[in-house]
Design brief:
The complex is a heterodimer of chains A (336) and B (299). In chain A, 32% of the residues lie in helices and 22% in strands. Chain A is an alpha/beta fold. Chain A has an eight-stranded mixed sheet with strand order 6-7-8-3-9-10-12-11, sandwiched between helices. In chain A, helix 4 packs across helix 5, helix 4 packs parallel to helix 7 and helix 5 packs across helix 7. Chain A is globular and about 70 Å long. The N terminus of chain A is likely disordered. With 299 residues, chain B is mostly helical. The radius of gyration of chain B is 23 Å and the shape is globular. The N terminus of chain B is likely disordered. Classes of the chains: A alpha/beta (336), B mainly alpha (299). The interface between A and B is medium-sized, with 37 and 30 residues.
Chain lengths: 336, 299
């Protein structure tokens, strides 16, 4: 399978609409007495997008934009407070315990930090065999060993038999992330949330891990939600890019369209600061002022207006509509 | 593909772990000393009773009563003419047995309550921790005395009473570590692959709090042995069993102090102190081995 034929590919695997994750903000005892209204952290605040089979969709944005929470909410590792996640025709948010466990075989996650996401007291073998054991997928030891070896091999760890009894701390960062990928692959999932899978790795091994993930997509048709803060990386691996800001998607389109002709001022600012291996002045770049606001106090109107270089009066009061600006290219700004 | 059988490799892993553990532990002088003393007493408890003849514990004529140490009776005799040396050796078995069995009970309760409490949090946590607090603040000696008196003096009851009164501290420690471990990404990963709560607690939380359990066990064992001695000394022990505590109890009540029979009082007392000390030494050494932050650079 080559790259996914976009936009002809309409083989929809996941449809997310109005996804919300609100947390009750932790306030002190005294302040909860003074102010009556309990404050909410609106980490994910109404997100809509869909994912097609064999597609890589990048969810990009600054830290604190809610991209990781979105990924985990789709898998119900964080309980969403509203919206819908339709996976292969079924609403994930209505799954009961046993159906949810079955769903975990179809949808997997790779975590950011391979030093923390592997149990330090589990060997390579038991790390990869665990998903099979928990889900009672293997009837015999031979079958288990075979599937573990196969997954390790698919994840690019050569000589799987030799590293069976190693511990994670005996492996390098790249090998650890490959191990984490193997433990997700062993269940043969259709969908993987990759939460910044290379951000903790050395630059030199990033390419190998990225290539592995793209190869797996090509070979097995796995669909990825690739979460990253690095737009150049998003451009490199993804078919489509969604830009998230303060819990909402502000722009979504094909990777080329988003990077080469960004609609939203926020995307333009992010694209303008993509590092290029050439010395250029900062003059041509849009540097955003300040930090992402606190998701407890999301600004009224357009949530980006306090930092937007093009903000006008209207942006303060009126929330812009998220709409299809050009075919398959969505954006939420008054001036696009 | 030629793969090693996994069952075989589990043994290899175990051996490897043990070797690296010993490498660090053997550099700790305190730990080695503690282990040495404990080994001595363990061997005494296992093989000692076969070496001393049981007849030395029987009454041996009026002339031999309260006799200071001689070549025949290395540690003298008591008020009934029984050999103190034989008593010390035979008593080691029951003293250690009671201590270890009580520790096993205490650690099982403490670990289960700690892990469940920390893992589930919220209402479960509040309930279990208030329950633990009750056991933590009740003065343990009066509680033990009341329970021992109610249940009657038998070995099983002594073990039960000590076990049931000494788990609270362990539960607290295990709970706090569980709170930290359950937030680690590998626990979230375990959930993502479809593991249930029980699986996560047994396969992910337990192995990672195990070093703490291990180090704590040794310290609880010291307390349990001391408790057994205390209870027996105060007359709550099983009078048909020879333990160090029972020996002290009879020595005290039969006036060994006023008689000046130091050979009757000192040996069981010193044995208790040495065993408790050895456990404490091992406990501190384990703490240093298993908690890398406490380990000195030059070691």
């Amino acid at each position: 399978m080559g790259p996914v034929n976009y936009p002809g590919n309409n083989n929809e695997l996941i449809k997310i609409s109005g996804l919300e994750v609100h947390f009750a903000a932790r306030t002190g005892f005294i302040s909860s007495l003074i102010s009556k209204n309990s404050s909410l952290v609106r980490a994910v605040d109404g997100v809509d997008f869909n994912l097609r089979r064999g597609e890589i969709l990048c969810l990009a944005g600054e830290s604190g934009s809610g991209k990781t929470t979105t990924g985990k909410a789709i898998l119900r590792l964080v309980e969403p407070t509203g919206g819908e996640v339709i996976f292969d025709g079924e609403n994930v948010l209505q799954f009961n315990r046993s159906r949810l466990r079955k769903f975990r075989q179809d949808a997997q996650i790779i975590f950011q930090d391979p030093y923390e996401s592997l149990n330090p007291r589990q060997t390579v073998f038991s790390t990869v065999a665990e998903p099979l054991e928990v889900n009672h997928l293997c009837s015999s030891m031979e079958e288990k060993e075979e599937r573990v070896a196969e997954a390790l091999k698919d994840a690019g760890l050569s000589n799987p038999g030799e590293i069976f009894i190693r511990y994670p701390h005996e492996l390098s960062g790249g090998q650890r992330q490959r191990l984490a990928i193997a433990s997700a692959l062993v269940l043969k999932p259709d969908f993987i949330v990759a939460d910044e899978p290379v951000s903790m790795l050395d630059l030199s091994i990033r390419a190998g891990i990225l290539k592995l993930m793209v190869d797996l997509r090509d070979k097995k048709g796995i669909c990825y939600l690739f979460i990253t803060h690095d737009l150049s990386l998003a451009w490199l691996v993804s078919d489509r890019i969604a830009i998230m800001y303060l819990g909402k998607i502000v722009e979504l389109g094909t990777a080329d369209a988003v990077i080469k002709s960004p609609l939203h001022p926020y995307t333009r600012a992010l694209v303008s600061v993509i590092p290029v291996p050439k010395k250029i002045s900062l003059a041509g770049r849009t540097l955003l002022k300040g930090e992402t606001p606190d998701p407890v106090n999301i600004p009224p109107g357009c949530r980006f207006h306090p930092r937007c270089p093009e903000a006008a009066e209207r942006c303060r009061d009126e929330e812009p509509l998220y709409r299809e600006v050009s075919p398959n290219h969505f954006g939420a700004c008054h001036f696009i | 593909m030629n793969l090693p059988a996994y069952n075989k490799s589990a043994l290899v892993v175990w051996k490897k772990n043990l070797k690296s553990f010993w490498l660090i532990y053997s550099q700790n002088i305190m730990g080695l000393l503690g282990l040495g003393i404990l080994t001595f007493f363990a061997l005494m408890a296992i093989f000692g009773p076969y070496l001393v003849s049981i007849t030395t514990l029987t009454i041996d004529g009026v002339t031999q009563v309260m006799h200071p140490p001689t070549s025949n009776y290395w540690l003298g005799t008591d008020d009934l003419g029984k050999d103190v040396f034989a008593g010390v050796i035979i008593g080691s078995r029951v003293s250690l047995l009671v201590g270890l069995a009580a520790t096993a009970i205490s650690m099982t309760i403490g670990t289960s309550i700690g892990i469940i409490s920390g893992f589930y949090g919220k209402f479960t946590d509040t309930l279990l921790m208030r329950f633990t607090d009750v056991f933590l603040v009740i003065p343990w000696l009066p509680l033990m005395l009341v329970m021992a008196a109610l249940l009657g003096p038998s070995l099983g009851n002594i073990i039960f009473v000590i076990g049931i009164t000494s788990w609270a501290g362990t539960a607290r420690i295990i709970r706090s570590q569980t709170l930290s471990i359950k937030e680690r990404p590998y626990v979230e990963r375990a959930r993502a692959i479809g593991s249930g709560d029980g699986h996560i607690m047994i396969y992910h939380i337990l192995p990672n709090v195990f070093p703490l359990i291990f180090a704590n066990t040794v310290l609880v064992a010291a307390i349990a042995i001391l408790s057994e001695t205390t209870l027996s000394f105060l007359g709550m022990g099983d009078p048909t069993q020879v333990t160090w505590g029972m020996m002290l109890h009879f020595a005290f009540s039969m006036g060994a102090v006023s008689f000046g029979a130091w050979w009757w009082l000192l040996p069981p007392g010193i044995c208790v102190v040495l065993v408790v000390l050895s456990f404490t030494f091992i406990g501190y050494a384990l703490d240093e081995v298993l908690n890398p932050k406490l380990r000195r650079r030059d070691q």
